Amino acid sequence: MKILIAEDEPDIAMQYELALKDRKHDVIITNDGEQCLEAFYHELEKDEPARNRKMMKRPPFDAVILDYRMPKKDGMEVAKEILAIEPKQRILFASAYVLETLVDSVKTLQQVVELIQKPFELDPFVDLIEDKGIYSELEKLNVNAKEIKDLNPTHQQVLDLLEGLKKLQKGRAL
């Protein structure tokens, strides 16, 4: 997976990077909101020829991890800008900010984003990014998760598959 992280605390950023690289993910670390947007735009520019030919159907990153409070631009500003350009981009807020305030703030985005409150253990954090819980639910529905992973779907595609299968299963149970 290709993951963009905006985290202004160097020790925390290093922990994220090590945990994700240990699981073979491609990670870009930025220290503030402006750097995060620069990295995002840089990745978009690399894919511009494919976008012009309507070939690119997925966001430039599998996940963008944002701290809520950062220098230069906070995570909410960054999320708004990214989602305005790429509405299907998966965004996760990893923040120590008061959860209720964070939930209220992300509602202004009018799009689904994920929240994980600091402090947290790194393994569950990486599992969340990798959609381990979703794949586990798919396996309970007798789906071969490995075959699905091999297709390299986006997070939204995996969620849609799970929801569709749940609806089918519910229809059969009636």
From TrEMBL:
Task: Spell out the CDD domains in the cross-references.
Answer: REC
- List, in alphabetical order, the GO biological process terms annotated in this UniProt record: phosphorelay signal transduction system
Occurrences of domain Response regulatory (ranges): 2-133
InterPro entries tied to this protein: Bact_response_regulator, CheY-like_superfamily, Sig_transdc_resp-reg_receiver
Q: Which UniProt keywords apply?
A: Phosphoprotein, Two-component regulatory system
Pfam families, A to Z: Response_reg
Report the Gene3D superfamilies cross-referenced here.
Answer: 3.40.50.2300
Write down what this protein is called: Putative signal transduction response regulator, receiver domain protein
Organism field: Nitrososphaera gargensis (strain Ga9.2)
Lineage of the source organism? Archaea, Nitrososphaerota, Nitrososphaeria, Nitrososphaerales, Nitrososphaeraceae
